[in-house]
Amino acid sequence: MKKLISLVVVALIGWIIYVSVLGTPEDKAVRNKLLGSAKDFGQTVVEVFNHEKDKVEAGTYDEVLDKLDKAIDNLKEADEDQDYAQKLKDLEAERQRIKEMLAAGQNAKSARSAEDPNAAAQKDLRKLAEEVVKVSEEMEKKK
Q1: pLDDT, tens digit, 9 for 90 and up, residues 47-97
Q2: Which of 79, 117, 134, 137 has the most crowded CB, counting CB atoms within 10 A?
Q3: Is the pLDDT of residue 139 over 50?
Q4: What is the pTM of this model?
Q5: DSSP letters of the chain?
């Protein structure tokens, strides 16, 4: 996981430098927009996953889901050629599935089962966040 995060950071820094030096004003505007969402999204994910378990069970995933929604919307706006339209729809569907899973986990909280429903949702949420970053990187490479 550390290597993946390091790779993402290095790729992002390289893209920022490239766009800052050789990018058009449009590229710079896209960069600023994506950086703003990526920064907010990254900070939120780190904060939520570092909180205590009972805080997570209390519904702090809502903020992460909102940030994911904003990040996906920003990627849709940046996808001018609609090359990633289906992938972005799939990401939205996965976000909705996780949201429903978390809601079901809250309802099942009183009837404790052997497996914590929020643990699976947390794992899926991390995968979704990684996938959003991956699509963002693919879109950056294409431009």
Answers
A1: 666 664 555 555 567 777 888 888 888 888 887 778 888 988 998 899 889
A2: 117
A3: yes
A4: 0.55
A5: -HHHHHHHHHHHHHHHHHHHHH--HHHHHHHHHHHHHHHHHHHHHHHHHHS-HHHHHTTTHHHHHHHHHHHHHHHHHH-TT-TTHHHHHHHHHHHHHHHHHHHHHHHGGGS--SS-HHHHHHHHHHHHHHHHHHHHHHHHHH-
